[in-house]
Amino acid sequence: MTGKHYDRTYFDRWYRDPARRVRSPAATARTVALAVAMAEYYLGRPLRSVLDVGCGEGAWRALLRRLRPGIDYLGLDASEYAVARYGRARNLRLARFGQLGELRFETRFDLIVCSDVLHYVPSAELQRGLSGFAELLEGLAFIEVFTAADDPEGDIEGFIRRSPDWYRRAFAGAGLMACGSHGYLSPRLLRTAAALELAPR
């Protein structure tokens, strides 16, 4: 994604060090619960499958399975360290964001997670990856991204300051419709949403 090295030192610093990490384990658990609830609300059934893009060490997997035991989880990340260490145990595979434009799997996913990733991805790669979301997504995409209008804490090396409108156009161009709180509906679920649940086009 950038020239950064997503090795063990990186994850120790930004995810495990209480003095540096931006999000506590409790906050992460609340975020996971939010994403699950939103996806199930619009799907109208329990969550069955999750694709976690830019998953790092796959921290969401255990939290998702605590809420929905037996859920089908697949994590993708560009970190060779994370995939080598946790790939087999947590079902992580090596992939860059842009590859989602071409990657396809046996089924579409009820939930695609992309948390704290896109603001580090170059624009051309970001748009290439987003172009595959409409085919990969059955339900809801939870895309947590920060913009030039925000003041993010933590790791700002390689942070790309794009405007909120830039992201809105990119997501809309990929067929995703904002429904609030970092949630974006697949084209298949648009008919299930009421008018005031959706962001203005």
Automatic annotation (TrEMBL):
<keyword id="KW-0808">Transferase</keyword>
<keyword id="KW-0830">Ubiquinone</keyword>
<keyword id="KW-0489">Methyltransferase</keyword>
<dbReference type="InterPro" id="IPR029063">
    <property type="entry name" value="SAM-dependent_MTases_sf"/>
</dbReference>
<protein>
    <submittedName>
        <fullName>Methylase involved in ubiquinone/menaquinone biosynthesis</fullName>
    </submittedName>
</protein>
<dbReference type="GO" id="GO:0008168">
    <property type="term" value="F:methyltransferase activity"/>
</dbReference>
<dbReference type="Pfam" id="PF13489">
    <property type="entry name" value="Methyltransf_23"/>
</dbReference>
<dbReference type="GO" id="GO:0032259">
    <property type="term" value="P:methylation"/>
</dbReference>
